[in-house]
Amino acid sequence: MKRLIAVAAVFLAVGCATQYQSSDTSLSGGYTESRLAPNEWRVLVEGNGFTSRGEAEQFLMRRAAELTLEQGKRYFELDAHDSWMQKWWTRSGTLHTFPVNKAVVTAVDERSDRSFDAVKIIAETNEAAGGKLSARARKTLEGFSS
Q1: Beta-bridge partner residues of 87
Q2: Which of 14, 77, 83, 107 is packed most tightly, with the most Cβ within 10 A?
């Protein structure tokens, strides 16, 4: 019986971990973005108690790369990049923490000292994101890969 409870707890924990997905469709965290200009967005990634700071960072970079590819561009720059641990206490006195990561993402045409290669970021974060990528970004990625 104890073994069954342990296995169930592992499945519950894995099921609650933040995945690479929009916060609009998730109860366990995810990303949101606000378009600031034609090639610029404010991206916010919120995790939950099962999400590491590193995972939140990977999801932010993945979303930045995906938005860039959706615009037909290969490179992006980050501004106002910040991360922190959000904390809140329950009435019973339990502390809950979850990582938050945000940045202003600008898709650019040319590579620079400040830019990231969206193709490389997609490859590096593919496992963490479970291979999720919009059809439009995938089509652009295939064009850059050929």
Answers
A1: 97
A2: 107
